[in-house]
Structures are given as C-alpha cells and as structure tokens.
Design brief:
Layout (H helix, E strand, L loop, with lengths): L5 H4 E3 L5 E4 L5 H13 L6 H7 L2 H4 L3 E7 L5 E8 L12 E5 L8 H15 L4 E6 L4 H9 L3 E2 L7 E2 L3 E2 L1 E6 L2
Antiparallel strand pairs: 1-2, 2-3, 3-4, 4-5, 6-10, 7-10, 8-9
Length: 172
C-alpha cells in the first residue's frame, strides 16, 4: 500500500462523495452494497452472490475501496489486487458495484478511473477484466472508459458453464 500516491488513498468526489479504503468493520456493509448492486437490474447466480459477501476473505489479497456519501454511508465499492499477491502480466479489478442509493452520480466511472490509477501506480500498462454476458450496464461503462472487448481471450467458464466476456484497456 505504501507504494500508492497519497492522493489515491483518499479522494473527495463531486456531490459530497468520498473514495477511500474500507475499514475491516465495514466489510459486511460492503458485501451488502455489492450484492444489492449486482442483483438490481442484473441476474447473478446464487454462488456468485454468496461470493460478493466474502469481503473479509477477499481483503487478504485485495484492497477494498469504497465510496461513501456525505453521511458516511457506503454506496459503492471495488476491489483491486494487492501487488504482493498479484503476479499477472495485466492488472485487473473485481466486483465493481454501485448500490441503488449511489446510482446516477458517475460513481461507477469514478471507481473505474480509480482502479486504472492504481494499476498505473503499480506499473501496469494493461488492465484486463472479465464480466458475465448479462452485465450489460457494466459493459457500457467499460466501453465508455476506453476498454475494448477481447473475444479471443474469452476462455474462462464459471458458474455452471457461463463463459465470461473479456475486456482490456492499455495505457500508452
């Protein structure tokens, strides 16, 4: 974590929102917000939804970033791999979600931009994402943030036969 610039550790956003690392005591809330985000307007398997609540387990190898509103309520989150546990050629981020109370404020885009800044700070040039086919709102967000679909990389099968879509973005 010490290799991240100070401005990435805490940021004030428009509309009174703030982006910061979650406290361990907030992991249950983070899981609830992510489950709400992924089950409102999108279909996910029960297995996937259970995984959204395993934030404490995921926090062992990933940083848990949250956006809170002016009242300090968590309304969005994303996980980025900790570099000491992540040794892939391309960086990634996981389970980006905005709860219903945070929608319509550009918070999804703010989380993507933050994850891209984290990847650059760790020295990565390319970010690779995997997404379920039914997560069309997420795909629109990724395209808007400069990602491109990579059908040639779509080899991951999860949740009883579901093939994930691949997206990449490279910084030059």
């Amino acid at each position: 974590m010490s290799s991240l610039p100070k401005e990435l550790l805490h940021a004030k956003l428009q509309g009174g929102f703030e982006l910061r690392l979650a406290e361990p005591s907030e992991y249950g809330t983070v899981g609830n917000v992510l489950a709400e985000a992924f089950t409102n307007g999108c279909w996910v398997t029960e297995e996937y939804e259970r995984g959204l609540h395993r934030i404490a387990e995921r926090a062992k190898t990933s940083d848990v970033w949250v956006i809170v509103n002016a009242d300090g309520v968590i309304v969005a989150a994303v996980l980025t791999p900790k570099p000491e546990f992540y040794h892939e050629e391309n960086y990634t981020f996981n389970v980006l979600g905005v709860g219903t109370a945070g929608r319509g404020h550009g918070l999804g885009k703010a989380l993507v931009r933050h994850a891209l800044a984290v990847s650059r700070a760790y020295g990565y040039k390319t970010v690779e994402l995997h997404s379920s086919p039914q997560m069309t709102h997420a795909h629109q967000l990724y395209y808007a943030c400069g990602f491109h679909r990579r059908p040639d990389w779509e080899t991951i099968i999860v949740d009883r036969g579901q093939r994930l879509l691949s997206f990449t973005r490279t910084e030059y």
